[in-house]
């Protein structure tokens, strides 16, 4: 902090002497390394879980299935034992972690559990040919863990498992490449799952059951729903206008909800996805007329004018939401 | 010199200082509100997400405006492309000036993209045709273009690009001199990084330039990164050496490669040590990141252990000291403390979700070679029937 600025503020009587003294002593205050150390812990947990997965895969034949699975199982139980021992009483409200290590031990335990169940199925075929169960059971356990211990990271893992159980990959860098969006069933599943997650978010908030989880549900649900609806728009060539109307209806509702919650993030997400849908329909409609230089002019002009229009739109709503920020409940 | 009024830039600076003081609890809510009221800002900076969206849309508009002009004027030859690029540069810059003066955009997304596009179009105009010393001339023009825009709009990103252009200019200038000088190009660039760092630190002490402090802080970061990278063995051997070894009389062998192994190993440790002594977290953080990169550099050339053992050791190296630090720094020690400050933002939650998903992706979708997860869509056993 620039002391000379605060000297002027003190002179203008905008801050008190006591506050100026605090500012002056601030440069001697200890620096917080909270973010750095928690990042180290996160990285450590993820690297350890990843290393264990590779170790098991490479040496499972030489070390022995039982030994490795016992080791992973023991590690998993130890982590959960620690968490149960230190956890606070269950509450529908947000619970702060009881110890610093709690969140990371829980995360490690959950990652080990996923590895354990997966390799149990691979080694002993516990679920037979029903591979879905190998995802369903961890999903249930992860959701239970997320709610009981109040951990957003575990909730994200649970939602990922839910999506995997339904046949989806929702990791950001592979959501478009790892999913087969030419499959009709997968597209419909994505839409249903997206709607379900959004409904879950709504119920969480209204019933105040872990209301702070609602953002995570809504985040996943919104992206999944829009990606699936856009996939439907691109894939179902004969009825794509129906899907376009679906996108518009969802967008109107989601837009109003984003305004009501004063959420810039969801406002941007809804508008950008809708823009992709509108642009696709525009290009497709004109494309059916027949490609020509004139059409290219129209296309380019459309993108220029629509881009500018949306920029003005965003700036307008940004100002509106900021001005009415005091009205937020 | 800069497009924004001194008063507005000063008010912005005061507001940033007040936010920092309020965030650390040095001033109360009333004082904070009073400061903001007395230092009103007319500069328009939207919310972070709006900024990103507006920037993306500006990219769309800029791209298609270029395509439209190209189509209208039937641009095909190299000369016509050059003229088009210069026209576009002028149009984008004019739009930038008008929008900034009339709407007072400041890091609004639109202005950032227009700065970049006008400079990029101008520089690209000099890259279309081939001529003697093209890289050197292009990098010199880049330095001027980025530098002027950085000063005019007090933009940190443009200043960083100007610095990168300076590195490129010095690099290509060194390549023009004799073989002896070419040998020491990485060391010259490291020296330049050190000079830029010292200059930025000196400028940060000059209160007359307080409106550019944010830019200078980014230059400090850039110079620290460039010093490490130009001394990193992998960067020198795989990226820099191939560029100048194509010239006459040069081989693919570095005659003094041990020097770069020394810098690869020593620089991160020096950063960490300096950061801990001087209580500058930027050095400590960069030091840790570069330690990881140095280990990866070493592993690239000398694979001393399998990847799973390396990950196991790395995991333990992160987790164990991390845990010990949480206990050791519960009370302030040596100028550091493990204490949560500030509230978590929505952006922080969203980013953490995304990072965790990517990291845990392997747990849900293991390697196909494992023949595990035999579901229809490569998920962890799921299929389209359930």
Description:
The complex is a heterodimer of chains A (329) and B (386). With 329 residues, chain A is mainly alpha-helical. Chain A has 12 helices and 1 strand. Chain A has helices at residues 3-11, 17-26, 34-63, 65-86, 102-124, 131-149, 152-166, 184-207, 214-235, 240-261, 264-289, 293-323; one strand at residues 31-32. In chain A, helix 1 (3-11) packs antiparallel against helix 2, helix 9 packs antiparallel against helix 10 and helix 9 (214-235) runs parallel beside helix 11. The two termini of chain A are 33 Å apart. The model of chain A has no long low-confidence stretch (mean pLDDT 86). Chain B is mainly alpha-helical. In chain B, helix 3 (48-72) runs parallel beside helix 5 (110-125), helix 5 runs antiparallel to helix 6 (134-153) and helix 10 (213-231) runs parallel beside helix 13 (281-301). Chain B contains 15 helices and 1 strand, in the order H-H-H-H-H-H-H-H-H-H-H-H-H-H-E-H. At the A-B interface, helix 1, helix 2, strand 1, helix 3 and helix 5 of A face helix 1, helix 2, helix 3, helix 13 and helix 14 of B.
